[in-house]
Amino acid sequence: MTPSRTPADIPPQAGRTVVVTGANSGLGLATARELARAGARVVLAVRDLSRGGEAAASIDGEVEVRHLDLADLASVRTFAAEWTGDLDVLVNNAGIMMVPPGVTVDGFELQFGTNHLGHFALTALLLPQVTDRVVTVASMMHRTGRIDLDDLNWERRPYSPTGAYAQSKLANLLFTLELQRRLTADGSRVRALAAHPGWAATNLQGRTGNRLADRAALLANRIVAQSDASGALPILAAATSDLPGGSYLGPGGFQEMRGTPTLVGRTPSASDPDLARRLWEASAALTGIDLPAGSNAA
């Protein structure tokens, strides 16, 4: 029940198939690289096929690139419809961070729509084929997040890049909580886990549109952050270690910003089963997608 602490601790993954969203750079690429090295067949689910191909070429092992745009539900449906066979592990990693105001193809606030609703829909559609676990990447910033069920898409509130990101990351944890509740109630052996990378230097930072804030973030990356390879360790542990459903992993060092993977805590809001249930219902209503009858958690 101890999380793997280094890539060398990852158990053999031969014969397993893993989908990693957003795997053409950063945490996703680092995660995909180590899983492939351990023997898994890894599917890089990416928006940009050209960059995905470059990422795949840098990985030793069995890899495949498929198109997926989480900001477009039609793309999510197509990806799921084209999937055949079992899927051992789904890693919901892709995301955007503190970007200027925007909406997805379907009109959702961009961060909530991409980071939460896209992965919610993808998981619901693929879950009947998942055999082991779903891992969703959250963030320390869930601690400042607030779920406004009456304004999930920031149509009434003044838009806040930081607030919208924090809401989406809190939603990731609530999604994991409710998914695991449903899996348990259904008697499924599939597990839902979450992980966060601490403060990892990736290409997510520095995209707020505010030049001063972006410079500060990039400077802090150089001074404080750990590498994307180190940030991927909690994700890898969640994807491969023998841990109970509902586990949440992050770095065990100072303020969870860096260090080896360990089980970490979450805020009361992120542990609220009623809020998790209501967010699930709202997400299903917004996307028009829910768990089908006969799924692993119907």
Assign the CATH topology: Rossmann fold
Give the CATH architecture.
3-Layer(aba) Sandwich
Q: What is the β-strand count? A: 8
Instruction: Classify the secondary structure makeup into a structural class.
Output: alpha/beta
Strand content: 5-15%
Protein traits:
single chain; eight-stranded mixed sheet; alpha/beta; 9 helices; globular; 298 residues; 38% helix; Rossmann fold
Task: Describe what you observe in this structure.
- The protein is α/β, with parallel strands linked by helices and 298 residues long.
- The protein has one domain: Rossmann fold.
- It contains nine helices and eight strands.
- The chain has helices at 26-37, 49-57, 73-81, 110-126, 161-185, 211-223, 228-231, 233-240, 273-287, and strands at residues 17-21, 41-46, 63-67, 87-92, 130-137, 191-195, 248-251, 261-263.
- Strands 3-2-1-4-5-6-7-8 form an eight-stranded mixed beta sheet, sandwiched between helices.
- Strand 2, helix 2 and strand 3 form a beta-alpha-beta unit.
- Helix 4 runs parallel beside helix 5 (161-185) and helix 5 (161-185) crosses helix 9 (273-287).
- The longest helix is centred in the middle third of the chain and has 25 residues, at 161-185.
- It is globular.
- The model has no long low-confidence stretch (mean pLDDT 91).
